[in-house]
Amino acid sequence: MTDQPGSRMTSEPVIEIRTYLLKPGERAAYHRILRDEGAPLLEQFGIEVVAHGPSLLDDDHYFLVRAYPSLAARDAAEARFYGSAAWRDGPRTAVLSRLISYHEIVLPATPQSISALRAVLAGPAG
Q1: Entry pTM
Q2: Is residue 7 part of a domain?
Q3: C-alpha closest to that of 25 among 113, 116, 98, 117
Q4: What is the tens place of the pLDDT at every residue in 53-88?
Q5: Is 6 domain-assigned?
Q6: Does residue 40 register a pLDDT over 60?
Q7: Other C-beta atoms within 10 Å of 21: how many?
Q8: Helix, strand or coil for residue 95?
Q9: Alpha-carbon distance values, 104 to 1, 19, 25, 51, 85 (Å)
Q10: Domain containing 105 — which CATH number?
């Protein structure tokens, strides 16, 4: 079966791009929490963090890019992560308390495109 554009049946790698609108003045704290707690926890659950960091446009936006081997792998990994005590009892409250909203988009990817995004976007995440 051939994957259709927009189909949830893709078995190819995907990237998820999340953008966050943060409460005013919260970006530095959000960055610290994601860098020191959130990203390492995601990685413990097998979720590849490609990059994260502040938006170049203003002080209240932030991004997170994650990669998965497939859409089904994304769904399973996120269910494990967000359902875990490590997330609920860990950085969840600190993360959510700083958010106004977030949006996500999932796109097809290749190992090369994931590496390229990491190379381009990794700078702000330091």
Answers
A1: 0.86
A2: no
A3: 98
A4: 999 999 999 999 999 999 999 999 999 999 999 999
A5: no
A6: yes
A7: 14
A8: helix
A9: 27, 6, 22, 14, 23
A10: 3.30.70.100
63 with 19: CB under 8 angstroms?
A: yes
Q: Are 13 and 109 in contact (CB under 8 A)?
A: yes
DSSP 14: E
Flag whether 18 is in a domain: yes
Domain with 29 in it: 14-109
Determine contact, residues 17/107, Cβ cutoff 8 Å: yes
CA–CA dist 92, 16 (Å, integer): 19
pLDDT at 119 over 50: yes
| pLDDT score of 1 | 34
Q: CB within 8 A of 56, min separation 6: which ones? A: none
Q: Is residue 116 part of a domain?
A: no
How many domains, in total, are found in the chain?
1
